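This follows on from our talk about sequence and fold. Go ahead and set the record down below:
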Amino acid sequence: MRKFACIVLLMFLLASLSPAATITRKGSIDFSGTDRITMEITRPNHPPQPFSFTTIGQIRNVEVQDALGNPIKPLILLSNGTTMVTLDAGVDYAHLTFSTDYLTYKNGSVWEYLSITIFSEPISAFDSTVDLPQGALVRETNGLLTYEKGRTIINWHLENINAGQRITRFGYYRLVPDENKDAFAALLPAAALILISALGAFLFFAARTRKAQKPTESGQHPLSLAQKSPASSPIFSTLEETDKEILLSISSAGGRTTQAHVYSTTHIAKATLSRHLASLENRGLIVRSQKGIKKLISLGSVFSQKQAE
């Protein structure tokens, strides 16, 4: 781990001496949550140092080509729940394709997208898009929305990014199945008969068992949809960027996770992470507990549906 950190630090120092690169990143998420990504990296003047980027989770099917379509062999390193991809010194253009299942998480009917990327050298312009599946309805995002051919696209544009700076992109969306309206209409008569039969059976059994079942608050699971995403709370916009990343990391794990998971997905230094966790706990934004040797963290009640309303 120490060797890995030294390599990254050396790359950051060398990168400060070179002209800034530009990055274009395009992702397309399917109905299962898999994100298929293409990236174009342009670096002027044949820079003398290697180039690397780090992303949360694991990636697969990595292919890299130069401007002429010739293959480039990258160095891929997995560490603490992240993947670092490194290109050799002298590479001034690269076209990458890869896929990952680690940027999306399904919480009930809501899909959460969270991507954190770190580059080893300054970036003058970073353009990123994510095509969501057909019928996606976006609830929240820190990007801009556009629509094309019935699909929703989230767009991000950033400039003058420092080496080692975390770039955080997120979005929350639901899928509305409406692709096969004609086929659905053809099935309506049969569906109506089934519905009437089911309704009759329901009324029959309901008349026999009039027992009301009321969920209690103590019986709610911490991952239930009563928990709103932190970004929807007015408090979220007032927080520091580090606090936001911590809350988004917890939310992407379903509202409850371990301190080790937060550390591995945010790359915040342990001392800094402990300080921010204590501050968030004092403000009631998170709840910390311990189960055996595991340090558990949950989103605070301030993010619950009931309180938000």
Q: What stands out?
A: The first strand starts at residue 21 and ends at 29. The first helix runs from residue 2 to 15. The radius of gyration is 23 Å. The chain has two domains: 2-175, 223-308.
